Amino acid sequence: MIDVENLCKDYVLKSKEPGLKGAMKGLVKPNHKIIHAVKDLSFHIDTGEIVGFIGPNGAGKSTTIKMMSGILTPTQGQVLIDGRNISKHRKEVVKDIGVVFGQRSQLNWDLRLGESFELLKHIYQINQKEYDKTLDELDQILGIKELLDKPVRQMSLGQRVKGDLVASMIHSPKVLFLDEPTIGLDVSAKYALRKFIKEINKVRHTTVILTTHDLGDIQELCERLIVINSGVLMEDGNLSEIVDRIAPYKTLVVEYYDEVAPEHTRCKLIAQDGNVAKYRFMKNDVTAAEIIADLSKEKKIKDVSIEETGIDDIIKIVYGA
Ligand SMILES: Nc1ncnc2c1ncn2[C@@H]1O[C@H](COP(=O)(O)OP(=O)(O)OP(=O)(O)O)[C@@H](O)[C@H]1O
Ligand SMILES: [Mg+2]
Protein backbone atom coordinates (compact mmCIF):
# COMPACT_ATOMS: atom_id res chain seq x y z
CA MET A 1 0.00 0.00 0.00
CA ILE A 2 2.82 2.42 0.87
CA ASP A 3 6.31 2.35 -0.60
CA VAL A 4 8.83 4.81 0.72
CA GLU A 5 11.93 4.76 -1.47
CA ASN A 6 15.20 6.49 -0.56
CA LEU A 7 13.31 9.43 0.88
CA CYS A 8 15.33 12.54 1.79
CA LYS A 9 14.31 15.99 2.97
CA ASP A 10 16.62 18.96 3.39
CA TYR A 11 15.43 22.22 4.89
CA VAL A 12 17.36 25.34 3.93
CA LEU A 13 17.60 27.87 6.74
CA LYS A 14 18.69 31.44 6.10
CA SER A 15 20.74 32.56 9.07
CA LYS A 16 21.90 36.10 9.72
CA GLU A 17 24.31 37.63 12.15
CA PRO A 18 22.73 39.93 14.78
CA GLY A 19 22.24 43.67 14.32
CA LEU A 20 22.16 46.02 11.32
CA LYS A 21 25.66 45.03 10.23
CA GLY A 22 24.58 41.39 10.19
CA ALA A 23 21.46 42.25 8.17
CA MET A 24 23.56 44.19 5.60
CA LYS A 25 26.07 41.36 5.38
CA GLY A 26 23.19 38.90 4.89
CA LEU A 27 21.91 40.96 1.96
CA VAL A 28 25.26 40.88 0.19
CA LYS A 29 26.20 37.33 1.05
CA PRO A 30 23.24 35.26 2.35
CA ASN A 31 24.21 32.59 4.80
CA HIS A 32 22.44 29.29 4.21
CA LYS A 33 22.36 26.38 6.59
CA ILE A 34 21.05 23.04 5.42
CA ILE A 35 19.23 20.69 7.80
CA HIS A 36 19.14 17.09 6.63
CA ALA A 37 15.86 16.20 8.36
CA VAL A 38 15.26 12.87 6.59
CA LYS A 39 18.09 10.79 5.16
CA ASP A 40 17.56 7.97 2.69
CA LEU A 41 14.51 6.39 4.30
CA SER A 42 13.04 3.25 2.71
CA PHE A 43 10.27 0.93 3.89
CA HIS A 44 7.14 -0.83 2.69
CA ILE A 45 3.76 -0.97 4.45
CA ASP A 46 1.08 -3.49 3.50
CA THR A 47 -2.67 -2.93 3.35
CA GLY A 48 -4.30 -3.24 6.77
CA GLU A 49 -1.16 -2.77 8.86
CA ILE A 50 -1.04 -0.47 11.88
CA VAL A 51 2.53 0.77 12.08
CA GLY A 52 4.01 2.75 14.95
CA PHE A 53 6.32 5.35 13.41
CA ILE A 54 8.38 6.55 16.31
CA GLY A 55 11.58 8.35 17.27
CA PRO A 56 12.81 11.10 19.60
CA ASN A 57 11.95 14.79 19.17
CA GLY A 58 13.37 16.21 15.94
CA ALA A 59 13.93 12.73 14.46
CA GLY A 60 12.09 13.62 11.24
CA LYS A 61 8.75 11.86 11.86
CA SER A 62 6.45 14.79 11.02
CA THR A 63 8.60 15.67 8.01
CA THR A 64 8.24 12.09 6.73
CA ILE A 65 4.47 12.04 7.40
CA LYS A 66 4.16 15.32 5.49
CA MET A 67 6.03 13.81 2.53
CA MET A 68 3.98 10.59 2.68
CA SER A 69 0.75 12.61 2.64
CA GLY A 70 1.88 14.94 -0.16
CA ILE A 71 2.12 18.10 1.97
CA LEU A 72 5.88 18.37 1.43
CA THR A 73 7.86 17.46 -1.68
CA PRO A 74 10.86 15.23 -1.03
CA THR A 75 14.35 16.56 -1.79
CA GLN A 76 15.12 13.09 -3.12
CA GLY A 77 13.37 9.74 -3.34
CA GLN A 78 9.66 9.06 -3.65
CA VAL A 79 6.52 7.88 -1.87
CA LEU A 80 4.12 5.55 -3.68
CA ILE A 81 0.59 5.09 -2.38
CA ASP A 82 -0.99 2.07 -4.02
CA GLY A 83 1.68 2.29 -6.72
CA ARG A 84 1.19 6.01 -7.49
CA ASN A 85 3.71 8.72 -6.73
CA ILE A 86 2.03 11.11 -4.29
CA SER A 87 4.01 14.17 -5.45
CA LYS A 88 3.18 13.60 -9.12
CA HIS A 89 -0.44 12.42 -8.77
CA ARG A 90 -1.50 14.32 -5.67
CA LYS A 91 -5.06 15.01 -6.85
CA GLU A 92 -5.93 11.34 -7.37
CA VAL A 93 -3.93 9.96 -4.44
CA VAL A 94 -5.31 12.44 -1.93
CA LYS A 95 -8.69 10.67 -2.13
CA ASP A 96 -7.04 7.57 -0.72
CA ILE A 97 -5.40 9.20 2.26
CA GLY A 98 -6.46 10.93 5.46
CA VAL A 99 -4.15 12.81 7.76
CA VAL A 100 -4.44 14.14 11.30
CA PHE A 101 -1.90 16.29 13.12
CA GLY A 102 -2.66 16.26 16.85
CA GLN A 103 -0.75 19.53 17.22
CA ARG A 104 -2.62 21.43 14.51
CA SER A 105 -6.24 21.19 13.41
CA GLN A 106 -7.17 20.92 9.77
CA LEU A 107 -10.69 22.12 10.56
CA ASN A 108 -11.94 25.58 9.72
CA TRP A 109 -12.16 27.53 12.99
CA ASP A 110 -14.93 29.80 11.70
CA LEU A 111 -17.33 26.98 10.85
CA ARG A 112 -19.44 24.66 12.95
CA LEU A 113 -18.12 21.10 12.96
CA GLY A 114 -21.04 19.84 10.84
CA GLU A 115 -20.40 22.60 8.29
CA SER A 116 -16.74 21.57 8.07
CA PHE A 117 -17.83 18.00 7.31
CA GLU A 118 -20.33 19.22 4.70
CA LEU A 119 -17.55 21.21 3.04
CA LEU A 120 -15.39 18.08 2.86
CA LYS A 121 -18.36 16.17 1.47
CA HIS A 122 -18.47 18.62 -1.45
CA ILE A 123 -14.69 18.69 -1.93
CA TYR A 124 -14.49 14.89 -2.11
CA GLN A 125 -17.82 14.66 -4.00
CA ILE A 126 -19.30 12.11 -1.61
CA ASN A 127 -22.97 11.31 -2.23
CA GLN A 128 -25.46 11.96 0.60
CA LYS A 129 -26.22 8.28 1.26
CA GLU A 130 -22.56 7.35 1.61
CA TYR A 131 -21.85 10.45 3.71
CA ASP A 132 -24.70 9.64 6.12
CA LYS A 133 -23.55 6.03 6.43
CA THR A 134 -19.94 7.00 7.15
CA LEU A 135 -21.00 9.64 9.68
CA ASP A 136 -23.27 7.10 11.43
CA GLU A 137 -20.43 4.59 11.63
CA LEU A 138 -17.93 7.13 12.95
CA ASP A 139 -20.53 8.47 15.40
CA GLN A 140 -20.94 5.01 16.89
CA ILE A 141 -17.24 4.88 17.75
CA LEU A 142 -16.55 8.52 18.62
CA GLY A 143 -19.94 10.03 19.52
CA ILE A 144 -19.46 12.94 17.15
CA LYS A 145 -23.06 13.87 16.31
CA GLU A 146 -23.61 15.80 19.53
CA LEU A 147 -20.78 18.11 18.44
CA LEU A 148 -22.01 18.89 14.93
CA ASP A 149 -23.56 22.25 15.89
CA LYS A 150 -20.55 23.42 17.87
CA PRO A 151 -18.25 26.03 16.32
CA VAL A 152 -14.78 24.54 15.97
CA ARG A 153 -13.15 27.44 17.85
CA GLN A 154 -15.29 26.66 20.93
CA MET A 155 -14.28 23.02 21.10
CA SER A 156 -12.04 21.50 23.74
CA LEU A 157 -8.85 19.80 22.59
CA GLY A 158 -10.34 16.30 22.86
CA GLN A 159 -13.50 17.32 20.98
CA ARG A 160 -11.40 18.99 18.29
CA VAL A 161 -9.22 15.88 17.82
CA LYS A 162 -12.38 13.77 17.47
CA GLY A 163 -13.58 16.25 14.85
CA ASP A 164 -10.26 16.06 13.02
CA LEU A 165 -10.40 12.25 13.05
CA VAL A 166 -13.87 12.16 11.56
CA ALA A 167 -12.87 14.81 9.00
CA SER A 168 -9.89 12.67 7.97
CA MET A 169 -12.12 9.61 7.52
CA ILE A 170 -15.17 11.19 5.89
CA HIS A 171 -14.04 10.18 2.38
CA SER A 172 -13.22 6.61 3.56
CA PRO A 173 -9.50 6.72 2.75
CA LYS A 174 -7.43 3.54 2.45
CA VAL A 175 -4.57 5.04 4.43
CA LEU A 176 -4.67 7.15 7.58
CA PHE A 177 -1.64 9.11 8.78
CA LEU A 178 -1.85 10.11 12.43
CA ASP A 179 0.86 12.41 13.78
CA GLU A 180 0.64 12.49 17.59
CA PRO A 181 -3.16 12.22 17.68
CA THR A 182 -3.26 11.45 21.41
CA ILE A 183 -1.22 14.45 22.51
CA GLY A 184 -2.91 16.25 25.39
CA LEU A 185 -5.90 13.90 25.52
CA ASP A 186 -7.34 12.63 28.81
CA VAL A 187 -7.45 8.91 29.55
CA SER A 188 -10.98 8.31 28.27
CA ALA A 189 -10.44 10.36 25.08
CA LYS A 190 -7.22 8.40 24.48
CA TYR A 191 -9.12 5.17 24.99
CA ALA A 192 -11.82 6.27 22.51
CA LEU A 193 -9.18 7.18 19.97
CA ARG A 194 -7.41 3.81 20.31
CA LYS A 195 -10.77 2.08 19.92
CA PHE A 196 -11.43 4.16 16.82
CA ILE A 197 -8.10 3.17 15.25
CA LYS A 198 -8.65 -0.53 16.02
CA GLU A 199 -12.19 -0.39 14.68
CA ILE A 200 -11.47 1.33 11.35
CA ASN A 201 -8.54 -1.03 10.87
CA LYS A 202 -10.67 -4.08 11.57
CA VAL A 203 -13.86 -3.07 9.77
CA ARG A 204 -12.52 -1.00 6.88
CA HIS A 205 -9.00 -2.50 6.70
CA THR A 206 -7.62 1.03 6.82
CA THR A 207 -3.83 1.11 6.85
CA VAL A 208 -2.67 3.28 9.77
CA ILE A 209 0.66 5.01 10.30
CA LEU A 210 0.81 6.34 13.82
CA THR A 211 3.35 8.71 15.31
CA THR A 212 3.22 8.97 19.08
CA HIS A 213 5.33 9.52 22.18
CA ASP A 214 2.78 7.52 24.22
CA LEU A 215 4.06 4.01 24.77
CA GLY A 216 0.54 2.86 25.70
CA ASP A 217 -0.60 3.71 22.16
CA ILE A 218 2.17 1.56 20.72
CA GLN A 219 1.61 -1.34 23.07
CA GLU A 220 -2.13 -1.26 22.47
CA LEU A 221 -2.14 -0.79 18.70
CA CYS A 222 1.05 -1.55 16.85
CA GLU A 223 2.37 -4.96 15.90
CA ARG A 224 5.07 -3.34 13.84
CA LEU A 225 7.41 -0.48 14.68
CA ILE A 226 9.50 1.75 12.45
CA VAL A 227 11.99 3.72 14.53
CA ILE A 228 13.91 6.67 13.14
CA ASN A 229 16.52 8.87 14.75
CA SER A 230 18.22 11.92 13.19
CA GLY A 231 16.35 11.19 9.96
CA VAL A 232 17.82 7.69 9.68
CA LEU A 233 15.99 4.35 9.91
CA MET A 234 17.07 2.60 13.12
CA GLU A 235 14.60 -0.28 13.38
CA ASP A 236 11.84 -1.77 11.28
CA GLY A 237 10.09 -4.91 12.42
CA ASN A 238 7.73 -6.75 14.65
CA LEU A 239 7.52 -5.15 18.08
CA SER A 240 8.15 -8.39 20.00
CA GLU A 241 11.07 -9.33 17.71
CA ILE A 242 12.67 -5.93 18.27
CA VAL A 243 12.24 -6.34 22.04
CA ASP A 244 13.79 -9.85 21.90
CA ARG A 245 16.72 -8.74 19.77
CA ILE A 246 17.57 -5.54 21.63
CA ALA A 247 16.99 -6.93 25.09
CA PRO A 248 17.46 -10.70 24.97
CA TYR A 249 17.58 -10.73 28.75
CA LYS A 250 15.31 -10.64 31.78
CA THR A 251 15.94 -9.57 35.34
CA LEU A 252 15.37 -11.88 38.27
CA VAL A 253 14.69 -10.17 41.58
CA VAL A 254 15.42 -12.31 44.63
CA GLU A 255 14.65 -11.41 48.23
CA TYR A 256 16.76 -13.30 50.78
CA TYR A 257 16.40 -13.57 54.54
CA ASP A 258 19.73 -11.84 55.06
CA GLU A 259 21.91 -9.33 53.26
CA VAL A 260 24.46 -11.59 51.61
CA ALA A 261 23.53 -12.42 48.02
CA PRO A 262 25.29 -15.36 46.37
CA GLU A 263 26.73 -15.05 42.84
CA HIS A 264 25.70 -17.35 39.98
CA THR A 265 27.94 -18.44 37.09
CA ARG A 266 25.22 -18.20 34.40
CA CYS A 267 23.85 -14.77 35.23
CA LYS A 268 25.10 -11.41 36.43
CA LEU A 269 24.42 -9.91 39.83
CA ILE A 270 23.59 -6.35 38.71
CA ALA A 271 22.32 -4.76 41.93
CA GLN A 272 21.88 -5.40 45.61
CA ASP A 273 19.90 -3.36 48.10
CA GLY A 274 19.73 -4.90 51.58
CA ASN A 275 18.14 -8.33 51.29
CA VAL A 276 17.09 -7.82 47.65
CA ALA A 277 19.39 -8.78 44.77
CA LYS A 278 18.87 -8.38 41.02
CA TYR A 279 20.31 -10.84 38.50
CA ARG A 280 20.29 -10.34 34.74
CA PHE A 281 20.16 -13.50 32.62
CA MET A 282 19.98 -14.24 28.88
CA LYS A 283 16.57 -15.65 27.94
CA ASN A 284 17.98 -18.27 25.54
CA ASP A 285 20.78 -19.32 27.83
CA VAL A 286 19.22 -20.30 31.13
CA THR A 287 15.80 -20.28 32.80
CA ALA A 288 14.76 -18.37 35.91
CA ALA A 289 13.75 -21.71 37.50
CA GLU A 290 17.30 -23.08 37.11
CA ILE A 291 18.85 -19.97 38.64
CA ILE A 292 16.39 -19.95 41.55
CA ALA A 293 17.03 -23.64 42.21
CA ASP A 294 20.81 -23.04 42.31
CA LEU A 295 20.59 -19.89 44.44
CA SER A 296 18.26 -21.51 46.95
CA LYS A 297 20.92 -24.15 47.59
CA GLU A 298 23.27 -21.36 48.71
CA LYS A 299 20.89 -19.10 50.64
CA LYS A 300 17.33 -19.28 51.89
CA ILE A 301 15.01 -17.34 49.54
CA LYS A 302 11.99 -15.39 50.80
CA ASP A 303 10.49 -14.17 47.50
CA VAL A 304 11.23 -13.94 43.77
CA SER A 305 9.90 -11.97 40.80
CA ILE A 306 10.89 -11.49 37.16
CA GLU A 307 11.18 -8.13 35.45
CA GLU A 308 10.59 -8.22 31.69
CA THR A 309 12.34 -5.58 29.64
CA GLY A 310 9.59 -3.13 28.78
CA ILE A 311 9.06 -1.22 25.58
CA ASP A 312 10.15 1.96 27.40
CA ASP A 313 13.58 0.40 28.07
CA ILE A 314 13.86 -0.67 24.43
CA ILE A 315 13.01 2.78 23.22
CA LYS A 316 15.58 4.33 25.54
CA ILE A 317 18.21 1.98 24.08
CA VAL A 318 17.25 2.62 20.43
CA TYR A 319 16.86 6.37 20.86
CA GLY A 320 20.14 6.53 22.74
CA ALA A 321 21.90 4.79 19.87
N1 LIG B 1 9.89 24.01 8.22
C1 LIG B 1 11.09 23.69 8.71
N2 LIG B 1 12.17 24.45 8.42
C2 LIG B 1 13.39 24.12 8.90
N3 LIG B 1 13.63 23.04 9.66
C3 LIG B 1 12.60 22.26 9.99
C4 LIG B 1 11.27 22.53 9.53
N4 LIG B 1 10.45 21.56 10.01
C5 LIG B 1 11.22 20.73 10.73
N5 LIG B 1 12.51 21.14 10.72
C6 LIG B 1 13.66 20.48 11.36
O1 LIG B 1 13.73 19.15 10.85
C7 LIG B 1 14.05 18.23 11.88
C8 LIG B 1 12.95 17.16 11.97
O2 LIG B 1 11.76 17.79 12.42
P1 LIG B 1 10.37 17.00 12.57
O3 LIG B 1 9.33 17.98 12.90
O4 LIG B 1 10.19 16.17 11.35
O5 LIG B 1 10.69 16.05 13.82
P2 LIG B 1 9.73 15.06 14.64
O6 LIG B 1 10.38 13.73 14.61
O7 LIG B 1 8.35 15.18 14.14
O8 LIG B 1 9.86 15.64 16.12
P3 LIG B 1 8.77 15.75 17.32
O9 LIG B 1 8.75 14.43 18.02
O10 LIG B 1 9.34 16.81 18.20
O11 LIG B 1 7.46 16.14 16.71
C9 LIG B 1 14.23 19.04 13.14
O12 LIG B 1 15.60 19.32 13.30
C10 LIG B 1 13.46 20.31 12.85
O13 LIG B 1 14.01 21.42 13.54
MG1 LIG C 1 6.55 15.80 14.98
Automatic annotation (TrEMBL):
Keywords: ATP-binding, Nucleotide-binding, Transport. Residues 2-255 form the ABC transporter domain. PROSITE patterns: ABC_TRANSPORTER_2. SMART domains: AAA. It holds the Pfam family ABC_tran. GO terms for molecular function: ATP binding; ATP hydrolysis activity. This is ABC-2 type transport system ATP-binding protein. It comes from Pseudobutyrivibrio ruminis. The lineage of its organism: Bacteria, Bacillati, Bacillota, Clostridia, Lachnospirales.
